[in-house]
Amino acid sequence: LGDTIDWAIVAIGAIMVALVFLNVLLHLVNKDLAWLTELGELLMVWVTFLGGAAAARRGAHMAITEFIDQLGAKRRIADLLITAASALVLLLLAWYGGVITLAGWSNRLTVLDWPMSLQYLALPVGALATLVYVVWDGVQIARGKTRQERFGV
């Protein structure tokens, strides 16, 4: 799953670079292809949510740990509670994302005329992918592994 997400992010990023470059070239000759902008926006949404999963895989999400670092032996319990809260939020995002995705199939993107739900779908997919890594991290925490052992940082 991790490598697939990473390669999807790389591919989407490359496509976005090409789209922006093409759009800049077209603007130099006073031309415009509106679908380039709309496709770029759709891809930006996807790369954002997939990037969240990629960051979770690496333990790269921002964390303020000044308080939790002072807990000593109780840190593991706090880490588990934080992980459980994160998992709950991700489940809610996935559920809500599924609801809006299903509700939005009749809405269309303005220029591409694709279902708006193709954009919305990034939310439940990204939330569920991130959830996989958060749950796995919780398992590792429960087994007593430190952050250094889990992520090498």
Largest sheet: none
Written as H for each helix and E for each strand, in order along the chain, the element string is: HHHHHH
Radius of gyration: 19 Å
Number of helices: 6
Structural class: mainly alpha
Categorize the overall geometry.
elongated
Query: What is the rounded distance between the termini?
Result: 22 Å
Helix percent reads over 70%
Number of separate strands: 0
In terms of quaternary structure, the protein is single chain
Strand content: under 5%
Stretches where pLDDT is under 50 for at least 5 consecutive residues are: none
Tell me the count of domains.
1
Average of pLDDT: 96
Describe the protein in words.
With 153 residues, the chain is mostly helical. The chain has one domain. The chain is 73% helix and 0% strand. The protein contains six helices and no strands. Helix 1 packs antiparallel against helix 2 (34-58). The radius of gyration is 19 Å and the shape is elongated. The protein starts with a helix and ends with a helix.
Question: What is the fold's blueprint, element by element?
Answer:
Elements: H1 2-28, H2 34-58, H3 75-103, H4 117-120, H5 122-142, H6 147-151
Helix pairs in contact: 1-2, 2-5, 3-5
Short account of what is shown:
This protein is an all-alpha fold and about 150 residues long. About 75% of the residues lie in helices and about 0% in strands. It has one domain.
Key words describing this protein structure:
mainly alpha, 6 helices
